[in-house]
Design goal:
Order of helices and strands: HHHHHH
CATH architecture of the largest domain: Orthogonal Bundle
Radius of gyration: 35 Å
Largest sheet: none
Helix content: over 70%
Strand content: under 5%
CATH class of the largest domain: Mainly Alpha
Number of domains: 2
Structural class: mainly alpha
CATH topology of the largest domain: Arc Repressor Mutant, subunit A
């Protein structure tokens, strides 16, 4: 009888050890998977935090041009409109008066009469100046220089 009791205790202890080892293995694998997931997340965060300095410089140039003519509040709505780095560079190479005419017409949505009044010229002169600036920008963007 004592032999059966010893076998029973031995069997229960073996079962306990087997369950403990299995639980420890599961715990180890879960911890290892969490560590791998955390590493993958860190790699993703590093890739997403990549800074495109050309895009930031382009945004800065466009902001500076817009801030000169419209003040701080209105120009932020216009920023997505200037999406070409080459175009932003060409706009920066324009004379201040030309930039003013361009921004007043495009972003300020002024008609040629209002544009002429703002820049002390006749409406027809304002129209001609605007289309001259547009041709100048097209030429600058196509030839990469202004």
């Amino acid at each position: 009888m004592e032999k059966k009791q010893t076998d029973s205790v031995q069997n229960r202890f073996t079962a306990y050890l087997m369950a403990a080892v299995a639980n420890r293995r599961i715990s180890y694998m879960e911890q290892r998977n969490r560590q791998k997931e955390w590493e993958y997340i860190q790699v993703d965060l590093l890739e997403k935090n990549h800074v495109d300095f050309d895009a930031q410089y382009h945004t800065y140039l466009a902001e500076q041009s817009l801030l000169r003519y419209f003040g701080y509040g209105e120009c932020l709505d216009c920023m997505p409109e200037i999406d070409s780095i080459q175009l932003a560079k060409c706009i920066n190479h324009l004379k201040e008066r030309e930039r003013g005419i361009l921004f007043a017409r495009v972003f300020g949505e002024l008609d040629f009469t209002e544009l002429g009044g703002k820049f002390d010229m006749e409406p027809k002169q304002a129209e001609m100046a605007y289309y001259y600036i547009i041709r100048k920008l097209r030429k600058g963007v196509v030839s990469n220089k202004l």
